[in-house]
Amino acid sequence: MAMRLLVSLAIVALASADVGSHVSISHGAQPAVTYSAHRPHHVPSYHPAPAYHQRPTYHHQPAAYKPAHAYEADPPACSVNTTKTWCLEDDEYPTYELKAAIDYHFKSFKNLYADVADLNTELSVERPTTLEEETYLCPSETAYIRPLRAINTEGKWRVIINNIKAHYESETLTQTTRIEECLTSGNACPLVPVCYGSKCLQKSIYHRFVVYNPYDQYFPFAMETFQLPASCACLLSAFTIDH
């Protein structure tokens, strides 16, 4: 009876104890029995996160290739004593460097050069030379030129591939264009009455040449655009007469 009373008192004491307290009950010589009021903690199951929540972003992007130095050629010596935007003679023309570069890149250069092959235009602008045959309103001078240097449409001097014999070719690499320059640009048109307010006007055309860029070590050739004189017109008030 006494033993039952002791067990009942122990149970009551255990129920009234604070959370986290411990109660020890000894029964004579028996080893002490410890009761813990700790409630087992909830251990969450392991859910590994996905390897990538989104596509990885690479902040470093390889930069586009640019030549080591900008191609900013100074005005050549051949441009000193002329007002033209091209040179037909050039004592500083890099003939040796051009031959070496063309030989090294011959296959790629040949494909580029094929777009501007030499023109057979010797008779394309045959014109009368005397007033008895025909009269032009504005006097002009026509020529076929092979420029060695010229100013491109961005205002920069460039070396143009011309008169180069390279890679054991039997033919000479040339780039020819036709130009027509007004001899009295800005003046009144001859044979036109003053009351019409006429004037001679220089007209231009855009032409493409293969040029040499000594600063590009991978492929030192490119196609660039040049503005050259193409014809001479007579401007009458609000309209233009072309010929």
TrEMBL record:
Gene3D superfamilies: Cystine-knot cytokines. It holds the Pfam family Spaetzle. Residues 1-17 form the signal peptide. Residues 136-235 form the Spaetzle domain. GO terms for cellular component: extracellular space. It comes from the Eukaryota. GO terms for biological process: central nervous system formation; innate immune response. The keyword Disulfide bond applies. One of its GO terms (molecular function) is growth factor activity. InterPro entries: Cystine-knot_cytokine, Spaetzle, Spz/Toll_ligand-like. Keywords: Disulfide bond, Glycoprotein, Signal. SUPFAM superfamilies: Cystine-knot cytokines. PANTHER family: NEUROTROPHIN 1-RELATED. This is Spaetzle domain-containing protein.
